[in-house]
Specification:
Blueprint: H1 9-12, E1 15-19, H2 24-35, E2 39-44, H3 47-57, E3 60-63, H4 69-81, E4 87-90, H5 106-133, E5 138-141
Parallel strand pairs: 1-2, 1-4, 2-3, 4-5
């Protein structure tokens, strides 16, 4: 059964915020949600890719860096003004370097910590009151691993 088979009026009134939306799993998630009737805010740093995704799917492209407090606040304000969100899907992140710990580059690990941990915390913390307000909010954190 495809996702499109589940297109119901209840789903058509749902809104999701998807981070990491410009490529890979995030992009696929946006496409899948939109195809089933969700309104989706597609969030990532790459403006051109988000614009193309928005044009292709009808998702709302929102360029933002989830590690930046001002960007997170602007996203929250935009989603609030549009009526709020029911779901936050945290996919933004990544891996830099595939070195063993003995050869690890501190800058790579710093970047990964800022994006994968602190960015996820910042955006989740910002959206929790909204998601809790309807009693049915959902947060999904999705990550991947990298091995040398």
């Amino acid at each position: 059964m495809t996702l499109a088979a589940h297109n119901t009026p209840a789903i058509q009134n749902k809104t999701a915020v998807v981070t990491g939306a410009s490529t890979g799993i995030g992009e696929a998630t946006v496409k899948a949600l939109v195809s089933t009737g969700w309104k989706v805010f597609a969030v990532a740093r790459r403006v051109e890719r988000l614009s193309a995704l928005g044009a292709e799917t009808g998702a709302v492209p929102f360029p933002a860096d989830i590690t930046n407090d001002d960007d997170v606040a602007a996203l929250l304000a935009a989603v609030t003004q549009a009526g709020g969100a029911d779901t936050l899907i945290n996919i933004a992140g990544g891996a830099r370097g595939a070195d063993t710990i003995a050869n690890a580059d501190t800058e790579d690990w710093d970047w990964m910590y800022r994006v994968n941990v602190l960015g996820t915390m910042k955006i989740t913390r910002a959206f929790l009151p909204m998601l809790r307000s309807n009693g049915e909010g959902t947060v999904l954190n999705l990550t991947s691993t990298s091995t040398p």
